[in-house]
Write a structure and sequence with these properties.
The protein has 414 residues and is an alpha+beta fold. The chain is built from 18 helices and seven strands. A hairpin with a 5-residue loop joins strand 2 and strand 3.
Length: 414
């Protein structure tokens, strides 16, 4: 039977399908590609006349070379008459001795089952949570009974992340693990939640807090002047539309023509593209509509409003707007996300309803009662607010008097 059939490029290129499929390397080793996007090394073998499967961990955390080594060790154990699953069976026996008759489940299995049931979260959030647990916890703990994992076990893996300088990310992984363990406790798969026993403020280091750079309202006219000097590049138009819509850069990059209602001047961002799994409506000002008409004329029939320069099948680079900002002299002073801060400051200073501002920024309140809303909430006020903001942005341009040395519009309006 052929062995070592896979190349690392094959593993990297594998994309999820509706059903699980396998890439075979030989001698029982295969890479299982899950519908959720995860990739797990598994080895099929026979012991005592029965077909068995053992997991070696997720790819790429466990490399192709490491998986092959684990497969060879498993086959060596079989040649010596040893049971490759002896450790797991010993844990099960210990559970039975202590009167634990519950169904045995691994951390990896519990994680998959829990996140599979979270239909209220966006696909990107779910992918990040799954990947975080798989990369940083499942290599050492993934195949263990979730009920056997102690605070010491979990903290040891999290401390590795902290030691590597991942002071912010380790807190996210602990939070995601906390949710999985809490689910396990509620479903009688475990008796304690070790993640809840770890205080992140005391257990982990601190990173220097750096907020998204944003300009003050008084700095906007000068920025608009400098931006106008770049002409009508796609990145320039993207920068302008980002400012007018108050959206996140990733949402603008992934914007599709099918999401735009020209008759109603609305942009519907579907839940899969949002940070939270909820549709979001963005009213389009007159200025935004003009930009979209110009972009439509140069769209080259791509489904994306901002297609890549290299192929129409992908959106523009995630750093296109940021590179433009850097190039025109605003590195460290402004980011794409910073436009949201500018807009929020402007709207709050002008007395718009806080709930309307937060809804336009797609900040959904955590309070369960307040979070019950429809996607068109505060739409009339939000439409008027975005139009007034677009008019204010226009007033910051050169032809509004900034270049002639008079008081800037930002100073007059702030």
């Amino acid at each position: 039977m052929p062995t070592n059939c896979l190349r690392d490029s094959d593993c990297k290129a594998a994309r999820p399908a509706e059903k699980l499929f396998k890439l075979f390397d030989g001698n029982g080793l295969h890479l299982a590609v899950l519908p959720t996007g995860g990739k797990v090394w598994r080895a099929a073998y026979r012991y005592a006349g029965k077909q068995q499967t053992k997991s070696f961990g997720p790819y790429p955390e466990v490399s192709l070379a490491e998986a092959r080594q684990k497969r060879d060790e498993l086959r060596a154990a079989l040649r010596d008459g040893l049971d490759p699953m002896a450790d797991r069976k010993a844990t099960r026996s210990e559970n039975r001795l202590h009167g634990k008759s519950r169904k045995w489940i691994t951390l990896r299995e519990a994680s998959e089952e829990y996140w599979e049931g979270r239909k209220d979260l966006s696909s990107s959030y779910l992918a990040n949570a799954r990947r975080g647990i798989a990369m940083h916890l499942c290599t050492a703990l993934g195949d263990r009974d979730i009920a056997s994992i102690t605070r010491v076990d979990l903290l040891a893996e999290l401390k590795r992340m902290d030691a590597a300088g991942l002071h912010v990310y380790v807190r996210k992984v602990r939070m995601w693990a906390d949710q999985v363990f809490e689910w396990a406790v509620e479903n009688e798969k475990a008796t304690i939640n070790p993640a809840k026993l770890i205080n992140p403020k005391k257990a982990f280091g601190q990173s220097k807090v750096e907020s998204f750079s944003a300009l003050t309202l008084r700095d906007v006219p000068a920025f608009r002047q400098r931006l106008a000097m770049e002409g009508e590049l796609q990145s320039v138009l993207a920068c302008k539309l980002l400012a007018l819509t108050w959206t996140r850069t990733i949402e603008l990059r992934m914007m599709e023509w099918s999401e735009i209602d020209e008759a109603e001047a609305l942009w519907l961002i579907p839940e899969g593209k949002m940070k939270r799994a909820k549709d979001h409506l963005v009213p389009l000002s007159r200025q935004a509509v003009v930009l979209l008409k110009e972009l439509k004329a140069r769209s080259r029939r791509s489904r994306y409003v901002f297609p890549s320069d290299r192929t129409l099948e992908r959106p523009m680079s995630e750093n296109a707007v940021l590179y433009l900002i850097h190039r025109i002299g605003y590195k460290g002073k402004l980011t794409g996300h910073g436009f949201r801060s500018i807009a929020s400051t402007w709207a709050n200073e002008r007395g718009y309803t806080p709930d309307a501002i937060e809804r336009q920024l797609a900040h959904v309140p955590e309070n369960k009662v307040r979070s019950i809303y429809n996607r068109a909430a505060y739409l009339p006020e939000r439409r008027a607010m975005l139009q007034a903001y677009a008019d204010w942005m226009d007033s910051c341009d050169v032809d509004a008097g900034v270049a002639q040395g008079r008081d800037t519009p930002a100073e007059r309006l702030a």
